[in-house]
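Lab notebook page, bench 4
Experiment: in silico fold of construct C2
Operator: M.H.
Input chain length: 465 residues
Purpose: comparison with the prior construct
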Amino acid sequence: MAQQKLYAGAKLRETRTRLGLTQRMFAEKLGVSLPYLNQMENNNRPVSTGVVLALAQEFGFDVTELSSGDAERMVTDMREALADPVFADGPPPLADLRLAASNAPALARAFLELHRAYRQTTERLASMDEALDRENSPARPSPWEEVRDFFHYCDNYIDAVDRAAENFARPHGEARDVVRAAIETLEQKGITLRAGDKELRRFDARAGELTISSRASSATRRFQILHQLALTTQSKLLDATLDLARFQTEEAREIARIGMANYFAGAALMPYGAFLEAAQETRHDLEMLAERFGASVEQVAHRLSTLQRPGAKGIPFYFVRVDQAGTITKRHSATRLQFARYGGACPLWNVHQAFERPGHFLRQLAETPDGVRYLSIARDVSKPGGSFHAPVRRYAIGLGCEVTHASEMVYADDLDVTKPAAFEPIGISCRICERRDCHQRSIPPLERRLTIDPNSRGTLPYRID
């Protein structure tokens, strides 16, 4: 596969501005001419290997930050938005979308926000949402969507919260029983821990009681104690981070606060440096990591997707959780694989098959329409209610990385990643997938013309032009 050229003009400009350098000064330090730097900053030329090395040597710059993660996310999101029938003239060329995402990311985000508002307004009108019957009821993103996009575009890594959690778990670099330390810290705040059998977690501030369900698994109880610790002891840090996010609604801010507390809990349970080292040592064996850190398999998989600390990054993973209807309930990708913002995931993806084989890890070598190949693992994560009459919540999780990292994954053992025929073709979602002969296609791609011949029938009742 041909090496993809690196266009990172926006990141170069951002770096130069942060350093307070003129273009001429920056060019001199990078050892290039002023016109050449100008062309790179405007994405007329790719970033050269010499410039990448100079950034690392001259400024200690983590060159992995030049990767086009944000740009690729925006390109995928714009392609999906532009597949909307409202854009009757067809989508712009892919090259134009990449230029917009790289050169004008703020404009690209504004376009996505505008389309989201349009889509939500249309859906509300179609369902006769009573909120639109009231005067002065502006179309806003749902709080869940707003928070989802916040984590999506910050690479699911919140540095200040992550480091605070690591400092609590390993003060002065020394490991300790983090849950015991959390309980002692809460007791010092006048909060007593007790067991219950109803709600998973309930904090009564007036009585100074934190109740954790005894029906929950050990990993869940540990996580919930650390979640409450974050809300109790890290309120200033959480508020400062939430202020920077500038959420449009108070509901979104409070949902994000819960998300931040969850992030702290996961990062304290699995401190960054120790967890990264253990992940590399075990070759990312989820069960071994869960046992070592007293976490669940889902918590470990999610944590692996957050290892994006500048200068100490782990493997770029995608992580997703789906329910039995195929609805994506959690999603994040540090890879080039991006998930559809609307609708379910590709039915050919192994995450859907995990419900059929509970308790087993399923492996899949997959290739997306852009030619990128992945190693994907999936497993069900059913969550019993703890009693006969309690409902069982059933989910499946998917975790994967580009196949170039396969040697670092225990799940790649005995798989032939050099054989093209071993890779199954998957997509993002049917509405924007370019594959013409997919036997699992549910709807035609919105950006393609169709030919319908009543006298001929293949896999599909139409032909995609």
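Observations: Confidence is low (pLDDT under 50) at residues 128-137. The radius of gyration is 24 Å.
Next step: discuss at group meeting.
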